[in-house]
Amino acid sequence: MSDSRLNRRTFLSLSGVTALSVAGIGAGAGPASAADGLPASPLIRVEGNTGPAYFREVAVHEGTVIQSIGFDNVNRRLYYAQLIGGGRQLAGESAPLSGGTRDLHGDLAITEWTLGADAADGGGTGRITGYMYLRGFGHGVGFGVEPSGTSTYLWTEVDAVQDTANETSRGRRLCRFKFASSSTPLDATSTSLQKFTPVPGSVNNTASIDPINNRLVVRYSLNGMHYRIYDLAKARAGDFGTPLAEIAEPAISIDRNRFGKPSFQGYAVAGQYLYMLHGNSYGYTQDHDDNPSTPKIVISPPGEGNTHLTSVDLNTGSIVTTFHSKAGYTLPFREPEGLAIQIPQASRPDVFRLCMGFASGETPGQREASVYYKDSLIQL
């Protein structure tokens, strides 16, 4: 999220957290019905604070905090999404725009990193090889990365709907487009975009991709936040008739006196399991007890934070584990932002990891990005 408008994310994330509902039962879920269930798959162990750094405090194209991350596991690329920073003037604009205006308009920047030779073994080297500007898309809470030959296609939100009360926007639909580095912005009205409406009547649409099973994950709001899982090839062809799985987003249960209500910061899917990321930047304060007469408290103290990782069974909609993660706790500035599945070696899709993005960098306007990961797989 943008540094100067932290309360917006809390409001939006809390409005989207719903009571637990099993696949397809939630109000407003629509006429589609999930199949018999996803096949059993390994579970990434979210517990433990020893997850190593994949990248630590690396530069990205904009100076804003990252919003989400994604991997092209075939072509060995890493992508970061951010809001476009204040003071930048793009083609067709009469003057530079502020960061607040960019957020309200849904203007995003995508940075491409090509991973180095040793990164497949966890070395974490790479370099910036491209960037794109997206105008009128949304906030960038999540996006999907789809390899296609030597090219990379992105699935993002699009057709941003402005929320003037909270000075932000969210995408009404999804779209797919080829990543092509350019200083010329890609507008939401471009005819080069494939646009989709997986769930009619929904808002706050974002996407992710399960790279192990070639499935599209759609997170959307319709009487609460929900997830649907689709076969990627069918989704690409516009077929959203029957999801492979469908659940309402479960509310995490944590110690509110200690951690408050952490903001929703990202999600990823691998096989049978959904992973969710919640948390706030160090020093974040919140009215944790809904009593305006009591003072706000720091719910994300430096060196500890309130970052939580949660695993969810997509066949039942129930939470498997929620864990308070201190990964990257030594970062001077640390805000959890984005989850993604990485396959370090394309020849071994059975060996994968859950990567957590963190906005880092001590100076506002000069933020950096860090990525930590979990790779302990268990079979339940």
Automatic annotation (TrEMBL):
Signal peptide residues on this chain, from the entry's feature table: 1-34
Annotated keywords: Signal
Entry-linked Pfam families: Phage_RBD_prop
Taxonomic lineage from the root: Bacteria, Bacillati, Actinomycetota, Actinomycetes, Kitasatosporales
Name of the protein in its database record: P68 RBP/TagC-like beta-propeller domain-containing protein
Origin superkingdom: Bacteria
Presence of keyword GTP-binding: no
Keyword Transport recorded: no
Species, as recorded: Streptomyces gardneri
Domain named P68 RBP/TagC-like beta-propeller: residues: 126-370
